[in-house]
Amino acid sequence: MTATQRVSKIFAVEAPDPIDELRAVVVSTPAAPAELTGYLLKVRERAYAVTDGEVEALKASGVSEDEIFEQTVAAAIGEGLRRLDAARAVIE
């Protein structure tokens, strides 16, 4: 092994796969409270249609803004990954 190869081996750090990191975010997100069921379905199917009023209604029902945000992000990432997996299955 050459000196260059030894140095490359020492400094070779394998970066985590961003897709795997996203999957980990979805898996590590706690289950959503029942109040968010319809809202999260809408996020998955047609996020463009979510209104401020819907978010305000969730907050008024006692769901924290942080929880709404975390669940929204997890649902959007999860749906994006589902679509990515479906596209990959078609291509492969």
Task: Characterise this structure.
The structure is a single chain. The protein is 72% helix and 0% strand. It has 92 residues and is mainly alpha-helical. Helix 2 (18-28) packs across helix 5 and helix 3 packs across helix 5 (65-91).
Q: Which terms summarize this structure?
A:
single chain; 92 residues; mainly alpha; 0% strand
Q: Largest sheet at a glance?
A: none
The global form is elongated
Q: What is the number of helical segments per DSSP (H or I, 4+ residues)?
A: 5
Order of helices and strands: HHHHH
Mean pLDDT: 90
- Low-confidence blocks of residues: none
State the total count of DSSP E strands.
Answer: 0
DSSP strand content: under 5%
Instruction: Give the helix/strand class.
Output: mainly alpha
User: What is the CA-based Rg, rounded?
Assistant: 20 Å
**Number of structural units classed as domains:** 1
Helix content: over 70%
Distance between the termini: 37 Å
Summarize the entry for a quick read:
The chain is an all-alpha fold and about 90 residues long. It is about 70% helix and about 0% strand. The longest helix has 27 residues, at about 65-90.
SSE arrangement:
Elements: H1 3-11, H2 18-28, H3 37-46, H4 52-60, H5 65-91
